[in-house]
Design brief:
The chain is α/β, with parallel strands linked by helices. It has one domain: 3-Layer(aba) Sandwich (Rossmann fold), CATH 3.40.50.150. Helices cover 39% and strands 22% of the residues. It is built from seven helices and seven strands, in the order ααβαβαββαβααββ. The structure holds S-adenosylmethionine. The site of S-adenosylmethionine has 19 residues, from helix 1 and helix 3. S-adenosylmethionine binds next to helix 1 and helix 3.
């Protein structure tokens, strides 16, 4: 690989921070759906948090958020926003989910946020297994995931070679069924599925059973 996986995101971070959210209505719906489940005493983990937009929106609704991303540039921007917005209950750290200390069983997070990240991980099963471990029994995963597995053959043939050399991130060719089956295989129960349009990102809420 020509570039490290973090290189793309470090280079993109400032532009990513400036670019408008593509489908604001869908994003707002996902925020609203998530907010319905949150309580003031909740402790959340967000991984692949980017510049922290979602964590900072939910911060006022919960007790604490640990928000992590493997891109130091994304986290630098998120920390600038924390200061600007005077938010005190979100901790932004440069880290990957696999290295993030998981709380003792039963003392896990009330919720894990995985927004636009599950299609980017190297091992979806391992990531979802880690999410399961990070959640307390009854805890919830909120996720939004690009599902491009049924898109055009041309697109599906262009992306892997670019991902292999690191010019673009590697993207998993998921379908909604593959995504929800992967969650179920790790012991999570899918409670809510929403895809605003064919080929749009799938919003899934899944629970670690009690
Ligand atoms: C598409 S952005 C989404 C950011 C944010 N969650 C949002 O919804 O705006 C993906 C983020 O995940 C991080 N990321 C990408 N691949 C990753 C991986 N394999 N492991 C950990 N983080 C990754 C990137 O640095 C980037 O900030």
């Amino acid at each position: 690989m020509l570039f490290q996986p973090t290189t793309f995101w470090n280079l993109m971070a400032r532009r990513y921070a400036r670019s408008p959210i593509k489908n604001l209505e869908a994003y707002q719906h996902k925020l609203d759906m998530t907010a319905r489940y949150l309580s003031p005493q909740d402790r959340l983990l967000e991984f692949g948090c980017g510049t922290g937009t979602t964590a900072l929106i939910h911060a006022a609704r919960v007790s604490h958020i640990d928000a992590i991303d493997f891109s130091s540039e994304m986290i630098a921007i998120a920390r600038e926003k924390v200061v600007e917005q005077n938010v005190t209950n979100v901790r932004f750290e440069v880290a990957e989910l696999e290295d993030w200390p998981i709380p003792e069983d039963g003392d896990g997070y009330d919720a894990v946020l995985a927004m636009s990240i599950l299609h980017l991980v190297t091992d979806l099963d391992a990531t979802l297994g880690r999410v399961y471990q990070a959640l307390k029994p009854g805890g919830l995963l909120f996720s939004s995931t690009a599902c491009i597995g049924s898109q055009s053959a041309l697109l599906r043939s262009i992306l892997p070679p670019l991902g292999a050399i690191g010019i673009l991130p590697k993207i998993l060719m998921l379908t909604p069924d593959m995504l929800t089956q992967a969650m179920t295989a790790q012991g999570l129960t899918v409670e809510h599925f929403w895809q605003p349009a064919k080929d749009a990102a799938a919003f899934v809420i899944a629970r670690r059973p009690e």
